[in-house]
Amino acid sequence: MRTLLLAAAALAFASPAMAQLSGVEQVMVSTVEDRFESDVALLERLVNQNSGTNNIEGVRAVREMLVPEFEALGFTVERIDQDHVGRAGHLFARHEGAPGTTRMLLIGHMDTVFEPDSPFQTFTREGMTATGPGIDDNKGGVVVILAALHAMQAAGTLEGANIVVALTGDEESVGSPIAEARADLLAAGEWADVALGFEGLSVEDGRDMGVTARRSSNSWELRITAGSGHSSGIFHSAESVGAIYEMARIIEAFRTQLPEENLTFNVGLAAGGTPAVLGDDNISATTAGKSNIIPDSAVARGDLRTISQEQTERVAQRMRDIVADSLPGTESTIRFSFRYPPMSPTEGNAALLARLNGVNDDLGLDWQEPIAPIRRGAADISFVAPMTDALAGMGANGSGSHAPGETLDLGSLTRQAQRAAILMSRLAAEER
């Protein structure tokens, strides 16, 4: 992995002290402030265009709204359609700067969880608070990217910067096969020295936090078959104990034997009976049964979230071992779907946060301590984190993500864009 100079990590152990912004950096600060209302107007237009992941034309409409924004900044824009994975596609914007300097990958997404049939469709504003579908996740983050790039352009630091902006169109529900849906992002990760993720800013007890790690997002599916018969024979040694007792044994063993730091696992659906059948949509099941019949089948589905690939593999194997230790007359199988990998904490990520805290010093802002990984879910930056130094949570601060009433603190657009513009400008000036 390419890492920042670890000497920068020493900043994390020093006392915060105010320093002087350069004249160029002061231009960036004032440019973000001056453009605030136009940035909010762009945010309103983006939010009012529905772009639920499955609304292919809606996601593409948002993409077309963004194309001229990046072209005006001197970026070469590529529309990457993803019909072959059942999704709208991505927008990649590329800016070639000075050879041999830091290559930066900025990551966000254009889709939301709110499909056209959702009653929550419209941007509204009260003072410095706004609500709307996807306003936090992740259209606010997209506006932060553009605001930071405009500030760099005004200050003259964009010209020499090597930047790829990757805005995916299916972050909320990745297309399949996932290797094809994320092939372009993975290629950009191989190119980059630094990746910045513009999902929402983490705030804890009123303090902005840094995100140097995020956990994986995987799923598992359990299927159990068992001998059936009259319930009067259920505990006889030659008879089956039934599928439901076996399912209960497995799930309770998960609960008692698996827990460890930074690991969570959930059972989101369970059904047992004669028969129990998982729906084709994977979010429903049908079952029937009688109290005097030993149930012949059971199904369950859940998730698995880990902080490292080692933890993923080790815990998955432990789950397989638990499942294999079957009760009499039963047979169980577990299948995993490994979707979003973890963004593990690394020295390079910590050094990158230290660089951001140097920016905070100069802006007179509080330092951003690293938030516990268990507080953040998976995101697209996780795909590239094994290849490069990565820092997430660079987007705006909101609340109620994925629910009607999703809200954004508009003031956070300003400080996040200022932080990003100065950090990227400093990195862009460094040789690699």
From TrEMBL:
Signal peptide limits: 1-19
Record key words, sorted: Hydrolase, Metal-binding, Signal
Q: Which residues form a coiled coil?
A: none
Peptidase M20 dimerisation domain residues: 212-329
Keyword Signal included in the entry's annotation? yes
Tell me the domain of life.
Bacteria
Know the name of this protein? M20/M25/M40 family metallo-hydrolase
Which species expresses this protein natively? Aurantiacibacter gilvus
